[in-house]
Amino acid sequence: MFRVEHPEYFWLLLLVPIVVGLFFWYWRQRRAALDRFADRELLSYLAPGVNRRMPWTKFGLVALSLPLLVVALANPQWSAQREEIQRRGIDLIVALDISNSMRAEDVQPSRMDRARFFTNTLVDELAGNNIGVELFTCTAVMAAPLTTDYAFVKNVVSTAAPYQISAQGTNLAEAITTAEAAFDAESANHRALIIVSDGEDHSGEAAAAAARANAEGLLVYTVGVGKPGGSLMPVQLNNGRSDYIREAGGGPATTSADFATLETIATSGGGAYFTLSGDAENLAQALRAQVDRIEKQEFETQEFSSYDSYFYWFLAPAVLLLLVELSIGRKDRKMAERYEV
């Protein structure tokens, strides 16, 4: 199969007639100026050895080289062989907690920032699988469907924030149920859910939901972010002032990471629990090792053609023509020497 790698360069061929036209215009202007200076018989004595055909020869060599250089830039290619690549992996959803408790700054710069950075690191580590992103508070939404468009997935993660879901609170059971419904039925036993949260749960049904999902072929992993112990949740008000999330009585509310709940969910879901510390890359690698144990499924087969380039078939003669043009002088040396005094 024949193709041109950079067909846009063919637009440069429009410059060839323009260059030719400019040369004709220049030559006529030059000829007119010389005719005003002296007649042609006298010019042969004033400029001995000048070859009137030589400029045309030199320009012809340049004009011939231009289209060859353009074709070389476009790079004609011919398909050498076709290859089939079978992609294998699993379907994986990352459930990211964006409840108000993730505003806490008990880990720097905040639980939310730490969770976003880790999740993007995890997406890079798990490339090759179908990855989706779920955002949840007391309700859950699939913000990115299962895809291999990792740039889109990372953009969704980078912009995740508590304001995106107005209903607040944390319902881990809802996060598990919503994620389970997003998987294709054919991916049973080839799927995983990774929950990134501080573990606060207002439903108390997450462990049972994880057990049910695991019975349907879903492995549930949890990643805890934050610290146990009360922590305030700063918020930026509309007037630009900073304040804290407050309780119904008006006092500042506090949040405490609940890692025990996350451990129970992971155990019930047949997965494993991890604590998000400072080293996001090592944790992502540890999770990758867990995910790699899951039996892979075959995704779509993709065909690729490898191409050989043949630009040099056009570049070589173009360079040769230009070298010949540079080597040709504008005068007949023997005739010039005859008139030397």
Describe this entry's structure for a reader:
- This is Ca-activated chloride channel family protein.
- Residues 91-291 form the VWFA domain.
- Keywords: Cell membrane, Membrane, Transmembrane, Transmembrane helix.
- By secondary structure, this protein is of the alpha/beta class.
- The protein has eleven helices and 13 strands.
- The strands form four sheets. The protein has a six-stranded mixed beta sheet, sandwiched between helices. Strands 1-2-13 form a three-stranded antiparallel beta sheet.
- Helix 4 links the parallel strand 3 and strand 4.
- Helix 4 (111-125) crosses helix 9 (280-291).
End-to-end Cα distance: 66 Å
Portion in beta strands: 15-25%
- The CATH architecture of the largest domain is 3-Layer(aba) Sandwich
Relative helix content: 40-55%
SSE class: alpha/beta
What is the approximate shape? Answer: elongated
The level 1 CATH classification of the largest domain is Alpha Beta
Order the strands across the largest sheet as they lie in space.
5-4-3-6-7-12
Main beta sheet strand tally, sense and closure = 6 strands, mixed
Task: State mean pLDDT (0 to 100 scale).
Answer: 85
User: Cα-atom Rg, whole angstroms?
Assistant: 36 Å
The counted number of beta strands is: 13
**Can you tell me the residue ranges where pLDDT is under 50 for at least 5 consecutive residues?**
332-341
The CATH topology of the largest domain turns out to be Rossmann fold
Task: Please give the count of helices.
Answer: 11
User: So, the CATH homologous superfamily of the largest domain?
Assistant: von Willebrand factor, type A domain
Could you state the order of secondary-structure elements as H and E?
A: EHHHEEHEEHHEHEEEEEHEHEHH
Organism: Neolewinella xylanilytica
Keywords: Cell membrane, Membrane, Transmembrane, Transmembrane helix
InterPro entries: Aerotolerance_reg_N (IPR024163), UPF0353/GerABKA_families (IPR050768), VWF_A (IPR002035), vWFA_dom_sf (IPR036465)
Pfam families: BatA, VWA_2
